[in-house]
Design brief:
The protein is an alpha/beta fold and about 160 residues long. The protein contains six helices and eight strands. The protein has helices spanning about 1-10, 15-20, 50-55, 70-80, 110-120, 145-155; strands at about 20-25, 40-45, 50, 60-65, 90-95, 105-110, 125-130, 135-140. The strands form two sheets. The protein has a six-stranded mixed β-sheet. A two-stranded antiparallel ribbon has the order 2-3. A hairpin with a 2-residue loop joins β2 (about 40-45) and β3. The radius of gyration is 15 Å and the shape is globular.
Length: about 160
């Protein structure tokens, strides 16, 4: 396992203050810390079985947004508005629901416990992930200022 991590470079991590924007959920939660690679998670799209790592093949930054069915539209709008206009073509928002039985449209479905335990993403939270799968920051969809602050810091 150690050799695999070395050869694949999956065990590399970056200090939080070098590229990351921190963990703004304030719950001391689980999942990777900023600067660490996000683990793969099984998901379902409208086309069938999928995975997080398959979704991260896009060359843009990805915001993983774990939305609630009741507040999902408001949370999506809040996070999308936090992305500065000059960054919008470089960042995509991947909406993930765990409280809907089936994915519809551009929403993905994943198990809530897995999203919380493996990614540290409770409902109503987001994570900014680099194209190579490294976590940059995590925060609340109701207060996405860390996302706009990170974008302003780097761009």
């Amino acid at each position: 396992a150690r050799l695999r991590g070395f050869l694949s470079e999956l065990s590399i991590h970056y200090p939080d203050d070098s590229i990351g924007g921190g963990d703004h959920l304030g719950d001391g939660g689980t999942g990777p810390a900023p600067g660490q690679r996000v683990p793969d998670v099984a998901m379902t799209s409208q086309h069938g079985p999928d995975s997080l790592h398959d979704q991260l093949t896009d060359p843009r930054m990805t915001v993983l947004l774990h939305i609630e069915s009741d507040d999902g539209l408001q949370q999506t709008a809040s996070v999308e508005q936090a992305i500065p206009p000059r960054w919008r073509s470089a960042v995509r928002v991947l909406k993930i629901m765990s409280d809907a039985p089936h994915p519809t449209g551009d929403f993905l479905h994943a198990d809530n416990e897995i999203l919380v335990e493996r990614l540290g993403l409770p409902q109503g939270s987001f994570a900014l992930v680099r194209p190579d799968g490294y976590l940059l920051l995590r925060g609340s969809a109701d207060s996405p200022n860390p996302l706009s602050d990170w974008c302003e810091r780097f761009g």
